[in-house]
Specification:
The chain is of the alpha/beta class and 456 residues long. The chain is built from 15 helices and 23 strands. Strand 15 and strand 16 (270-275) form a beta hairpin. Helix 8 (214-227) packs across helix 9 and helix 14 packs across helix 15.
């Protein structure tokens, strides 16, 4: 059984735990500008005083709540020390004073990356990151050896740092999901991860409020490709991703329709792909073109790290045949003959477009209708009206019944629910045996409650 640590957990930890060993000398070496007070020795780094274990080093971060307010609680729970902002040291616990505790945490993660002798793969893009990360992880675990994979959706600067701190340096590979919601974040992440292989799945509108327009998004996503030390990989079918690929000084390759690892066909039970001239049929338990593209990206990663074609093809058939979709990312469940598609983890125009297309194909295969429960796509800034209009028009073409949650979609003939629970009730009333119910919206819209109620 291949050893895979991370994304396969059905109930992923919000923040992965770690057991990094640190002492005063190590902290001074990694954080040369820090003011290090009393001598300390720590095992593990924690950012949450509620789950901190005795001997951990507590990092006081600013977020929804200021972590400095909980340094005393961390000390009471047995923290070995705390990293705090300059001038905010607390009596009774050894403190390391820095300009920015998050930057200090990132430097500690980068230092751990420095001592990892294996291969690091970074996965980025507007949509499909988590599925591709999982598929790449199970594939490398099958054909290369023990692999550590991003747990859950910890793909921002903080999540990536904590993922690396938790990763085993005895693994053969790390597969790190890399996301962003603000300009410059992926450059910071790339400087920590320093990937051997980078993959850019697609470029599309995402987090416009924090990043900017499509050109700014392309530049932001391109940081991962430019950071690749061995090979940079991009989606052959995405014009902007191919342009960003040209900015990388690493070896370059593509995946997907017309790519070096080519997607030839997608069927109900898998895909046909061409690897260096040889055509292979690979089973894939996750349906649809988007998942097939993600599988090709995973195959391209394995090619990039030097896996032999025959080993890779056989390993992919074993690895992809039964792997489940990550929770909330096109995960399916049959409830009394109605297929519920839980794709409510998040939404942007590219991901909703892919989900509608795949769900329509599933409904056609089952001989049923597509019932689409759609909620607002958030963080689209000044393109929000246009993109909700464009995706709404697509939904009218693809879906037989549309149920809306929120205010941003205006689709003629659609029913509007007052919330996630009512959306589930309306879908239940409409659904008949053979139908497919797609539930898709931004995370803040709370459609998890719709899925739970439908499946109940």
């Amino acid at each position: 059984m291949p050893l895979l640590d991370g994304a396969m957990s059905a109930t992923p930890e919000p923040i992965p735990r770690n057991s990094v060993l640190l002492d005063t000398d190590a902290l001074r070496r990694v954080l040369p500008d820090a003011i290090v007070g009393d001598e300390l020795r720590a095992c593990g780094i924690s950012i949450d005083s509620r789950t901190l274990e005795p001997g951990n080093l507590f990092v006081a971060l600013r977020g929804g709540r200021d972590g400095h307010a909980f340094v005393g609680h961390a000390a009471a729970r047995g923290a070995a020390g705390a990293i705090v902002e300059r001038g905010r040291a607390t009596a009774g616990i050894p403190c390391v004073e820095v300009d920015d505790p998050l930057t200090a945490l990132a430097r500690l993660a980068a230092a751990r990356r420095d001592v990892f002798p294996g291969t690091v793969v970074a996965i980025g893009g507007a949509a499909g990151k988590t599925t591709t990360t999982m598929l790449t992880g199970v594939l490398l675990a099958e054909v290369a050896g023990p692999t550590h994979v991003t747990r859950g959706n910890q793909n921002n600067l903080l999540g990536v740092a904590m993922t690396i701190l938790a990763a085993s340096t005895a693994a053969r590979a790390w597969v790190i999901e890399c996301g962003t919601s603000r300009r410059g974040e992926l450059l910071q992440i790339a400087n920590i991860v320093r990937p051997d292989v980078s993959v850019l799945l697609n470029i599309a509108y995402e987090h416009v409020d924090g990043i900017g327009g499509i050109d700014a998004i392309a530049e932001e996503e391109g940081h991962l490709l430019r950071a690749a030390r061995v090979e940079a990989i991009a989606n052959a079918g995405d014009t902007r991703a191919r342009l960003e690929l040209q900015t990388s000084s690493a070896r370059r390759s593509t995946f997907g329709r017309g790519g070096d690892v080519a997607l030839l066909d997608v069927g109900p039970f898998g895909l046909r792909t061409k690897l260096r001239g040889e055509v292979h049929t690979v089973p894939l338990s996750i349906p649809g073109e988007a998942a097939a593209l993600d599988a090709c990206a995973a195959l391209a990663c394995a090619v990039a790290v030097g896996i032999d074609d025959s080993v890779l093809a056989a390993g992919a058939k074993r690895a992809f045949a039964t792997v489940p979709a990550p929770p909330g990312r096109f995960a399916t469940q049959d409830v009394r003959g109605v297929l519920i598609v839980d794709d409510c983890y998040n939404a942007n125009p590219a991901s909703v477009e892919a989900s509608l297309s795949t769900a329509r194909t599933l409904a056609n295969r089952r001989g049923g209708r597509l019932i689409a429960v759609l909620a607002d796509m958030l963080e689209l800034g000044d393109v929000s009206v246009a993109e909700h209009g464009r995706i709404g028009a697509l939904a009218r073409r693809e879906a037989d019944v549309i149920i809306l949650v929120g205010k941003r979609f205006t689709i003629e003939g659609a029913a509007r629910a007052r919330g996630p629970a009512e959306a589930a009730d309306l879908a239940s009333l409409a659904a008949e045996r053979g139908d497919v119910v797609l539930v898709k919206g931004s995370r803040a819209m709370g459609l998890e409650a719709t899925v739970v109620r439908l499946c109940r």
